[in-house]
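Subject: sequence -> structure tokens, single chain

Hey, anyone have a minute? Need the predicted structure for the following. Not urgent.
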Amino acid sequence: MGISVKRDDSGQIPVGVVGTGGMGGMHARILHHKVAGARVEAVSDVDAERAGKIAQECGSAAIFADAVEMIRDDAVEAVIIASPAPTHAELTLECLRLGKPVLCEKPLATSPQEALGVVEAEVERGEKLVQVGFMRRYDPQHVDVKNTVSSGDIGEPVLFKGWHRNASSPPAADSEWVVINSAIHDLDSARWMLDGEIEEVFVRGLDTTGSPAEGEFDLQLVQLSISGGRLGIIEVYVEAGYGYEVGVEVVGTHGTAYTAPPTGAVVRLKRNYSQNVEADWLERFETAYTLQLQGWIESLNKEQLNGPDAWDGYAALVAAEACIASIKSGNPEPVSQPERPALYGREAQEVIG
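Reply:
Had a minute. Here:
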């Protein structure tokens, strides 16, 4: 059974956006200004003033204070969820109940158990309606590495390396926050790049900030065992100070493939040369977010989602939970999950870029 969405008189898919903060506002603006085939029909936020500004910028979209009310509105055919993480699973389930396709920002839920509930609800419907916002799968640099690995040019992939550095993190960020909000992207990237499942994790960390809270790590080094006898290592550093930087390298039996450094101008000045580093994820991955949304809308037109799905959201959370357990125990921790349902077969992902 394929996805069925209605278009308006101009042939566009009316989309509702839940959350109009940094992420939601960005999604709404990209959808309005850069994505063909869709328009912002409605926005929802508890902050009426913020919602009003985004609605006005996006062609006087309807404004809802209640997200569920917006999702249930007959004028809304598809939904983007960019509200706080604790709302994600509940709102995604509401979209599934109504048969409305949904692009939910990561994490899909606050726990693997919640995410598994979304998976089970989708399996019961018998059709994929959920896409999760792992936008690195649309980043041209990451896609180039993935395509090189898939081509077999570097031989069999045996090692994944990822690095993820933020200039700073919110004041309340703790070790679990680092895993769920930052490292989860890298865990998904490792699964995607090596086309396998994470089987064991071992996390070691450091506090580089002098925080009085014992055992809170802003720098984490995650060692992975990946199906097929492969290995992985992820560095996540959320107080790096100098800027925002994300990259991957995949080592194969015949060679390696890795993301290129920043592509801005190299400046030679006062006996030095330098190159700018992006300030944050919105700047670094703007192209990826645009391609993600365009790909999502095109997949709705083709009546078949092809991006990261609910199972990917669940599997990443299972690995993240094991990382948190490893931080607490100081030991390697297994990553166990049920058999992947047939609905989530490893069909090739179509990437626009």
